[in-house]
Design brief:
Elements lengths: L26 H20 L14 H5 L11 H12 L21 H13 L10 H18 L6 E5 L2 H14 L5 H4 L10 E6 L4 H9 L7 E4 L9 H13 L3 E8 L11 H11 L2 E5 L13 H5 L7 E4 L1 H4 L7 E5 L2 H8 L32 H36 L3 E3 L7 E6 L2 H4 L5 H20 L6 E5 L2 E7 L7 H18 L1
Parallel strand pairs: 2-3, 2-4, 4-5, 5-6
Antiparallel strand pairs: 1-7, 6-7, 8-9, 9-11, 10-11
Helix pairs in contact: 4-14, 5-14, 6-8, 6-13, 9-10, 14-17, 16-17
This protein binds pyridoxal-5'-phosphate.
Pyridoxal-5'-phosphate binds next to α6.
């Protein structure tokens, strides 16, 4: 890896410059460092596999290496960049490493990185249309394109937020506004006229939904968790029963969150059946498709992931998860965008825009908690343009193939077992060495298998050659291999399988 710090001068003989006493870096300096930085990033990507995926540092190691007090006078840029290389990079877990298989594997693609760079340079705040017309209009165009790629109905208008946690929070806030209980004005506290409001989600739904009910003042007791079936999907009958029971008890059900692609196993709730229940009881249906939603752009996967989603009131997906977009960018599609507007629009005098600028265009601040918003649509638009629908679909299709391939090795081996179906690009599995398979199934043996798999995961991760994570399924310690990085190829998945087997042999 090229070092940023040159000795004392540049090749062209110019001295390294300390910052000027006023104003920003000179244009010349900016150009020089900018070129060097892009070179460095290119090398970072081509040589990333030489680095450990999981940061091999101890807690507080970086803090101890940095000065406790800020510099009184400025330093030359190349000294700062040299510190990035020397101190910051070793403390990184490399999410862009092709052997990153933990949690959900994500990636910053090249056009996305360029989009981020330009967005930082423009630094617009998209609050009113006039503060960033390009951001307001590009958001509309990019999200309309993405909606068409997903085959969702044209009534679904999109808004960009930072994360799915925030997208879902806004969706549930819209559902609450849709009740017409004047909660926007009167709030929830000190209101004996209100029964307990209920939100439903499966026991495998994301903790973001719990956080949303906490933040919205509904309280965690408002969230009723619905049991899942043997394949980790919400039991629609149990949902229907819970709603009926709550109504009978005088509670006010108002929202159901269906998960398309749960965090542990990527299981897919039966959205069409859930939609039927929501329609019968006039409940807002929000679909959390943060990870799996992107697979809806693949024609043959769409029926699996988006069946029934056209009947939802809102749906969130994260291009920053599986659409090769640098963090952060989450999309909320909403069938009733005017309800979201009603929930959040608040225009103080200093933000009043001429009437001619309010017709047919969006003021971003009217659709959420934030006033200023980043120009996130630029990177998404650049990604859609660069790869095209077919290119993006091909990459997601390949990730699913790699996950199925890995799952087939697990299934064919006497030493391993699958612990969940593999509908998309995540494999849940564990080691179960054949020599031990004949033993009686007692609690002690279960604990031994848990401990073995946990040791195996740590041992594999500490090699630095890959990074996998875990979950707990049917009370078993479960390894998770998530494929999703744009640079991951069959060779990386094959190497992961070999490495896990090597580590297993060392432990047994
Ligand atoms: C990843 C994920 C989230 C949280 O995503 P953020 O964008 O980090 O908030 C929520 N729900 C599901 C189903 C997810 O997979």
């Amino acid at each position: 890896m090229r070092r940023m710090k040159q000795d004392d001068s540049y090749e062209d003989g110019q001295q390294r410059a300390a910052p000027p006493s006023t104003g920003d870096m000179s244009a010349e300096e900016f150009r020089r460092h900018g070129h060097a930085l892009i070179d460095w990033i290119s090398d970072y990507f081509t040589e990333i596999e030489a680095r450990p995926v999981l940061a091999q540092v101890k807690p507080r190691e970086l803090i101890e290496k940095l000065p406790p007090a800020p510099p009184a006078t400025g330093e030359p840029m190349d000294a700062i960049l040299a510190d990035v290389d020397r101190l910051i990079v070793p403390a990184l877990t490399h999410w862009n490493h092709p052997s990153f298989f933990a949690y959900f594997a994500t990636s910053a693609s090249a056009p996305g990185i360029f989009g981020e760079l330009l967005s930082a340079a423009f630094d617009v705040k998209s609050l009113l249309w006039r503060t960033a017309p390009a951001a307001a209009e590009l958001e509309e165009v990019a999200l309309s394109w993405l909606r068409q790629m997903l085959g969702l109905p044209p009534q679904f208008a999109g808004v960009i937020y930072d994360t799915a946690s925030i997208s879902s929070l806004h969706a549930i806030a819209a559902a609450r506004e849709h009740l017409n209980l004047d909660i926007r004005e009167q709030g929830l506290s000190g209101r004996p006229d209100l029964p307990l409001l209920r939100v439903y989600a499966s026991e495998h739904s994301h903790s973001a939904i719990d956080k949303a009910v906490i933040a919205l003042g509904l309280g965690q007791r408002a969230l009723r968790k619905i049991p899942a079936d043997a394949d980790f999907r919400m039991d629609a009958e149990a949902l229907a029963h819970a709603v009926a029971e709550d109504k009978q008890n005088g509670l006010l059900p108002f929202c159901v969150v269906a998960t398309v692609g749960t965090t542990s196993t990527t299981s897919i709730d039966p959205v069409a059946r859930i939609a039927g229940i929501c329609e019968r009881h006039h409940l807002w249906l929000h679909v959390d498709a943060a990870y799996a939603g992107s697979a809806g752009i693949v024609p043959e996967l769409r029926p699996l992931v988006l069946d029934g989603c056209d009947r939802a009131d809102s749906l969130t997906l994260n291009p920053h998860k599986w659409l090769f977009t640098p963090f952060d960018l989450s999309v909320l599609y909403c069938r009733r965008i005017e309800v979201l507007h009603r929930a959040f629009s608040l225009v103080p005098e200093f933000l009043r825009a001429p009437a001619a600028e309010t017709e047919g265009v969006r003021n971003g601040a009217d659709y959420g908690v934030q006033l200023g918003r980043r120009f996130r649509s630029l990177k998404l638009w650049m990604i859609l343009c660069y790869f095209g629908h077919d290119g993006l679909a091909a990459r997601i299709r390949e990730h699913c193939r790699l996950a199925r391939l890995f799952a087939s090795w697990v299934e064919d081996s006497p030493d391993w077992e699958l612990l969940a179906p593999v509908p998309l690009s995540v494999v849940c599995f564990r080691a179960r060495p054949a020599a031990r398979a004949g033993e009686t199934a007692d609690a002690e043996r279960a604990a031994r298998l848990d401990a073995l798999n946990e040791r195996l995961m740590h041992a594999a991760n500490s090699t630095g050659s890959l990074f996998i994570s875990h979950t707990r399924l049917h009370d078993k310690f479960t390894l998770r291999l998530a494929v999703g990085n744009i640079r991951t190829t069959e060779q990386h998945v094959r190497r992961a399988w070999e490495l896990l087997n090597e580590q297993l042999a060392l432990l047994t």
